[in-house]
Amino acid sequence: MTAFAASAPLAAADLAQTFGGIAFWGTLLAINVILFGAALVSISRTQLSSRSRRRWIWLVVLAPGIGIILWFAFGRPATRNRPSNA
Q1: What gap in Å lies between CA 34 and CA 11, rounded to an integer?
Q2: What pLDDT band is residue 10 in, cutting at 50, 70 and 90?
Q3: Contact call for residues 67 and 39 (beta carbons, < 8 A)
Q4: Given this model, what pLDDT does residue 11 score?
Q5: Which pLDDT value is given to residue 82?
Q6: Quick one: which of 79, 78, 56, 77 has its CA closest to 68?
Q7: Distance CA 83, CA 77 (A)
Q8: Is the CB of residue 21 less than 8 Å from the CB of residue 1?
């Protein structure tokens, strides 16, 4: 039995694990890119002063992980103050 034949099942398992890892990290990257874009669009559409808008954009661009979380958690203006159409 050759060394290649003995290692073939191991290679298939490694390949499956590699593709699983690529799929996992690719999905996380796609989610991050989507959230990054959504945060920038949300910041640009919100009524903020230009100075405040620039600061939020810089925070999201320079520290994307924490900037996105902070924007969606604390940065957006409250929707409760808007009048309803009812």
Answers
A1: 34
A2: low
A3: yes
A4: 72
A5: 57
A6: 56
A7: 14
A8: no
